[in-house]
# Entry
Amino acid sequence: MSNAPEKNPDAPAEATGAEATDQTPLSPDQVMQAATDRIAALEAELAEMKERWMRAEAENANVRARAKRDVDETRQYAVQKFATDVVEAAENLKRGIDALPAPAPGQPEILAKVREGLESMERSFIGILERHGIRKEDPVGQMFDPNLHQAMAEQESEAHKPGSVMQAWTAAWTLNGRLLKPAMVVVAKAPAAEIGGPRGTVNTTA
# Structure
């Protein structure tokens, strides 16, 4: 009869060598390293989320800025067609003043009063237009600019710099800096004798 003690079936099994190794408590350095790695992973995740949020905020800001710019431009230039018609009226008024006889001795007083009245009306009209962003620009003396001027003719001149506007048939008109109507101008060119022939014309088709 064996004297070996009987095993309790409810008792936990003894750990093998490998299992005993897995259950070995971590050293303080290992615990610290694990915590450091976890913190680094969380910080990286937080940085990525922050970057995504900043990109989304930047995109939203761009969308809001574009929308505001579109609304402002629509509001600013919605009256462009009306402004063009008003400019035509201003030019007709100017043509009417220019059509009056020049002041001269013995001229009827009524004619002088008509001229003064029309000139006063023109100044008032131009002032109203300027308050609403419509500006009249006299191009005479400026260098020809195809963005603002429409060349109607070229003329030889010793008194004007070649390529400059020597005469304006109409002024240039802008609405809040945007061209409404180009000035119709005559552009100066050097006399043929100074340039050795017909060359030396100004490029007015740029």
Q: What stands out?
A: The longest helix spans residues 28-77. DSSP finds five helices and six strands in the chain. Helices lie at 17-22, 28-77, 80-99, 109-131, 192-195.
